[in-house]
Design brief:
The complex is a heterodimer of chains A (280) and B (497). Chain A is of the alpha/beta class and 280 residues long. In chain A, 32% of the residues lie in helices and 32% in strands. In chain A, the strands form three sheets. A seven-stranded antiparallel beta sheet of chain A has the order 6-1-2-5-4-3-7. Chain A has a seven-stranded mixed beta sheet with strand order 11-10-9-8-12-13-16, sandwiched between helices. Chain A has a two-stranded antiparallel ribbon with strand order 14-15. The longest helix of chain A has 20 residues. With 497 residues, chain B is an alpha/beta fold. In chain B, the strands form four sheets. A five-stranded parallel beta sheet of chain B has the order 3-2-1-4-16. In chain B, strands 6-14-7-8-9 form a five-stranded parallel beta sheet. In chain B, strands 10, 11, 12 and 13 form a four-stranded antiparallel beta sheet that branches. In chain B, β1, α12 and β2 form a beta-alpha-beta unit. Chain B is globular. The chains are: A alpha/beta (280), B alpha/beta (497). Chains A and B meet through α1, β7, β14, α8 and α9 of A and β5 and α16 of B.
């Protein structure tokens, strides 16, 4: 059982949870993720560790409400317990002083990007960060990112905050302006696909952190497999970060939708059950 | 096989008065005239729609009758066939004498999981293959597996939950990594020696492949939990959600006072065939399919985990995992649940019993065939597979005749989902976390005769060493490793006095 120490909403559908997990807090590095199961009938879902406090023995997770499990998670509060949390999983981000690093995060992908920005800055890089969201209410971790970035660019689709436009436009502007030695992109698969195409044009080495469906997270099942440079890789043990120019994002997108029908069915049933409870 | 037969010991035991007397009560000729007992089974048309255990277990009368068949041989070759060296004639004779709890204690001497072994061991190629009936009389061997199961089940249902004799606790901390059959065996054995044992499990539930892999209809989970509970009652501690090499390293655990380690992290990496379209959704490894159903409750409306099934489900492979998968698919409502195997029924590596049960349950077999490509709908979900026919050619290194492609024989099959059951590779996590650990070219961990790895104090066994074998071989490794760990630690203790 893992206790929730703190919980707050960062935006309408995005919550931050601070969870007691001392071993994970101590072992985690930028790029690592965990898998959790809320209760005994729950599914195992992967979530990136957005921050950790070794002294307090806590890790932070940022969750966006999309399906049954993320709704249940967002409905939990400080003092509640999550049944299972395991990690840290995956390979840590390779952090080195490479010069200027462009970090681009879209939507809730900004959360897993934060520890990388932090580590890249501490390693001595010039860090330019772009955080993008549909509108101003969905912009998260702005202050945290600003603290560790030499330059922070906020972009929204509707222009309600920062620059109006897509993340790729912001990236291209930076790339045309100055020499970028490495790029890191995290966000929805579609965003990563186009961000990768953008940096490919300029031949900039780019990493993407993939958020595929997983079960065990230890290499046992292969649910998370992706094609990278024509070779099948497991995101859980070979990733989650891969050379973005080699990832087959179209295949990844279709695999992410593998259980869509069942998930919508579960979600509708869940919403109904919540309504029934509130009516009582 | 693994254990040397200690003939003097078995002979002395055989000469005890009660066994002498029991042996003479029925003439050998009369014993050999008794036909082998038949395991009662659930009706195929009922069981293939439920999780009912297929083998129902022997009745007391059936078990006693079968115990009469055992000749209590002067040289009990059956024991040589058992990877953990179970004293087979001794337990069967206790049973024949009516002391079933006594028989259960004999089983527990060498085997901490008899109710499991009685169900999932391939006895027909182990103990029963070495039986006098098979070797000298060309008759069916004594039904050792069925009797083992009977005795273990009887003890569970009727006996006090007893635990084996334990040495005084010595306070020395030992770590076991993985709670599958190898890990559980080591934990039980080390507890008997008096060690302070902790088992670290990566998943949220204990039992490893016994839980996520083997389906309920072949091995009820309550039985696995009962056996794990017995080990808990022996003082062994279990920590779930803990991945050694990730959550904490072996070096971290050494700092916490653990002096020796047993790695039993299993063959957790599924093999794929690397053919076009294999990453379409709806195509999954047997590990994924079985884990979703067995461990996560997939297919049960009360659980959140989804799973791919459908009307037409094809399982690629011919091993026990393929049989478990295809029979699970059938139970989840597949109209056509198909095994596709590149050789013939004769070469199929699955146990004969599993194949027989599968046939009875309406499983289709497409033999001498292999997929070469998959096709999908506009959403990327598999809907068709292209298959190539094969024929058998010359024997390969394994002695089995090699499947050879028949050119121009391709044809298509409509599918809703596909399960790939073509073997597994060792889990890479421990190896990745310890680059100094010596491994083989197959990524299995190298061990010596005592199951010790290239790093002193670090032992390994089961599928992480073997690459993909059986429950009982993993348990055999566990017994050997526990003895190895015991002598390692004792030598170390004396060296430091």
């Amino acid at each position: 059982m893992f206790k929730i120490i703190e919980k707050k909403f960062l935006s309408e559908n995005v919550a931050k949870l601070v969870i007691e997990a001392p071993y994970i807090a101590k072992s985690r590095r930028a790029g690592h993720f965990i898998i959790l199961r809320i209760d005994k009938n729950g599914e195992r879902i992967p979530l990136t560790i957005s921050d950790a406090d070794v002294e307090k023995g806590t890790i932070s997770l940022i969750v966006q409400r999309v399906g049954v499990s993320s709704h249940k998670l967002c409905a939990m509060n400080a003092g509640d317990f999550i049944l299972d949390v395991v990690g840290p999983l995956g390979k840590a981000t390779h952090i080195a002083n490479v010069g200027t690093v462009l970090c681009a995060g879209g939507g809730v992908g900004v959360a897993p990007l934060f520890p990388i920005v932090q580590a890249m800055k501490l390693a001595g890089n010039r860090v330019i960060t772009i955080i993008a969201a549909r509108n101003k209410d969905l912009v998260i971790l702005e202050n945290e990112m600003a603290e560790y970035s030499d330059e922070l660019i906020v972009m929204t689709d509707d222009g309600s905050k920062g620059t109006k436009g897509l993340v790729t436009q912001g990236m291209e502007e930076v790339i045309l302006r100055e020499k970028i030695h490495q790029a890191i992109v995290i966000g929805p698969a579609v965003m990563m696909k186009f961000a990768a195409l953008t940096t490919k044009k300029y031949d900039i080495h780019t990493l993407a952190s993939l958020n595929t469906i997983m079960v065990d997270g230890t290499g046992m099942c292969g649910a998370c497999r992706v094609s990278v440079g024509g070779k099948t890789e497991f995101v859980c043990v070979d990733g989650p970060e891969f050379d973005a120019h080699k990832v087959n994002f179209d295949e990844m997108l279709s695999r992410l939708g593998a259980y869509k029908d069942k998930e919508s069915e579960n979600y509708e049933a869940y919403v109904k059950s919540c309504e029934a409870i509130s009516l009582n | 096989m693994e254990e040397e037969l200690n003939e003097e010991y078995y002979k002395a035991e055989r000469k005890t008065e009660w066994r002498d007397k029991l042996r003479k009560e029925i003439k050998a000729k009369e014993r050999t005239d008794i036909g082998r007992v038949r395991m009662p089974e659930a009706d195929p048309d009922v069981r293939n729609k439920s999780n009912l255990e297929v083998n129902k277990g022997l009745t007391l009368e059936m078990a006693i009758a079968e115990s009469h068949r055992c000749l209590d041989c002067a040289v009990p070759t059956c024991i040589v066939g058992c990877p953990v060296g179970t004293n087979i004639p001794k337990f069967i004779k206790y049973l024949e004498a009516g002391d079933i709890l006594g028989a259960a204690e004999v089983l527990k001497e060498n085997n901490s999981l008899p109710a499991i072994c009685g169900r999932v061991c391939p006895q027909e190629i182990q103990c029963e293959a070495q039986c006098f009936y098979v070797k000298k009389l060309s008759k069916e061997g004594a039904a050792i597996g069925h009797l083992e199961r009977f005795v273990a089940d009887y003890a569970r249902e009727h006996g006090e939950a007893t635990i084996p004799a334990l040495a005084e606790p010595n306070g020395i901390k030992m770590a076991v990594i993985g709670s599958g059959p190898a890990g559980l065996t080591v934990a039980g054995e080390l507890a008997k020696f008096g060690y302070d044992v902790t088992v670290f499990e990566a998943l949220h539930d204990l039992g490893g492949v016994l839980k996520y892999g083997i389906p309920e209809f072949r091995l009820p989970k309550s039985i696995v939990d009962y056996e794990i509970n017995t080990i808990k009652n022996m003082g062994v501690k279990f920590i779930t959600n803990f991945i050694v090499g990730k959550t904490a390293s072996i070096a971290d655990l050494k700092e916490e006072g653990y002096v020796a380690f047993f790695i039993a992290s299993g063959a957790g990496l599924p093999n794929f065939m690397n053919i076009p379209g294999e990453n379409y959704s709806g195509i999954q490894s047997a590990n994924e399919f079985l884990t979703r159903v067995n461990l996560m409750g997939g297919g049960n409306k009360d659980f959140d985990t989804p799973v791919h099934t459908g009307k037409n489900v094809v399982i690629i492979g011919g091993g026990n995992t393929a049989m478990d998968s295809v029979r699970t698919a059938k139970r989840m409502g597949a109209e056509r649940a198909i095994i596709m195997y590149r050789r013939t029924m004769e070469e199929m590596p699955a146990r004969a019993e599993e194949i027989k049960h599968a046939i009875e349950e309406g499983i289709e077999f497409i033999n001498l065939a292999s997929p070469i490509e998959y096709f999908a709908d506009e959403r990327g979900k598999v809907n068709k597979m292209r298959v190539q026919k094969m024929e058998l050619g010359e024997p390969d290194a394994s002695g089995r005749r090699r499947p050879v492609v028949i050119e121009g024989s391709e044809y298509d099959i409509d599918v809703d989902s596909v399960v790939i059951a073509v073997g597994v590779s060792p889990n890479p996590i421990i190896q990745q976390s310890m680059p100094e650990l010596e491994i083989t070219k197959w990524n299995t961990i190298k061990v010596d005769g005592n199951m010790m790895t290239s790093i002193p104090g670090l032992f390994a066994g089961g599928d992480i060493v073997r690459g993909g074998a059986t429950v009982i071989l993993a348990m055999g490794d566990g017994r050997k490793a526990a003895a190895g760990m015991h002598s390692y630690v004792q030598a170390d203790v004396f060296a430091n006095i």
